[in-house]
Amino acid sequence: EWLDPWTLVTLAVAIVLAAPVGPRLGRWRDGLLVRGGAVAGALDAVAVTALLVVTTAFLAAGTYNPFIYFRF
């Protein structure tokens, strides 16, 4: 079955971001960074770092190595 929850979420996000919503969100974020100063910049850095950690965890959990239990 290819319509699992992750596929549906990915498809929904792709459809939304294929519209002009992406550039508008970017302009809104840039405006927040200009108005918010250092606090908004720090929160932006924390959000990007958290996204990096979560995506790295998903990539590491999804790997398959058939030789992991091979005894030498």
Brief rundown of the structure:
The protein is built from three helices and no strands.
Secondary structure topology:
Layout: H1 5-18, H2 21-36, H3 38-61
Strand content: under 5%
Largest sheet: number of strands, sense, barrel closure: none
- What gyration radius follows from the Cα positions, in whole Å? 19 Å
Order of helices and strands: HHH
Q: What gross morphology would you assign?
A: flat
Please count the beta strands (DSSP E, at least 2 residues each). 0
Q: Summarize the amount of helix as a percent range.
A: over 70%
Mean pLDDT across residues? 82
With helices defined by DSSP (H or I, 4 residues minimum), what is the helix count? Answer: 3
Class based on secondary structure composition and strand pairing:
mainly alpha
Instruction: Report how far apart the termini are.
Output: 38 Å
Low-confidence stretches: none
How would you sum up this structure, described in words?
This protein has 72 residues and is mostly helical. The protein has three helices and no strands. The longest helix has 24 residues, at 38-61.
Features:
72 residues, mainly alpha, 3 helices, 75% helix, 0% strand, flat
